[in-house]
Amino acid sequence: MKRRSAFGGASYIDTGGTGSALIFLHGTGCEASDWEPVIERLPPSVRCVALDFRGHGKSAVPTAPFALADLAEDALRLADLLGIEEFVLAGHSLGGMAATAAARRSKRLRGLALFEGWTRLGAGGSAFDGERFYGSLPKRAVAEIQRKSQETRRRFQPEIWRRFWNSVEAFDGYDILQSAEMPVLEAYGGMGRNASTREKLRVPPNPHIRWRWISGAGHYLPHERPAEVAEAAASVWRAAFG
Description:
The chain is of the alpha/beta class. It contains ten helices and eight strands. The relative contact order is 0.17.
């Protein structure tokens, strides 16, 4: 995997290759390198690209206002820059929301692999029982996630971050997912699941959407269960491209 720079100071990881690709989008306060344990478990024949969102990882910190829709456009713009013909977007948390937002913006998008990628941000907080955010991650891993998240937030001017986060809170992907005609995977950690969890997650009925529950895991699926996340992403890849 090689880290490169693109438009506007964006940083990304690319395993190289031509044709189709799996493009990975990380969660809030995370970065492209968090996907490396997942990417390493995928077949080498699958081209994998992972983007650092604006102000995250090694990407430049924005000084002008931006919104969730701009993160979706950044992912599509990166695909254009790299000459990727068709692709699947795999997103965790915020990255899943950005992937969903991109679904109506490109005909070259062939599938979505959403790992706790909320249909609407507030749905996740009430859908599960108990404390399950960090799952069964060891304290050292939790501390590292928290450190990176805090450092990321400090990079932004408060007003720019506030306006961005308002756009995240306002996002609702229900109609996008309801009308999707591509393979979509909705994957969630199984910790705290109860009889009303699925309803509260607000995933619409659609024959193209599959569910997957990852037992014993919480929110940070790429960190907790990279092998299972890799297999799940690969399943969407196979459904999209055969």
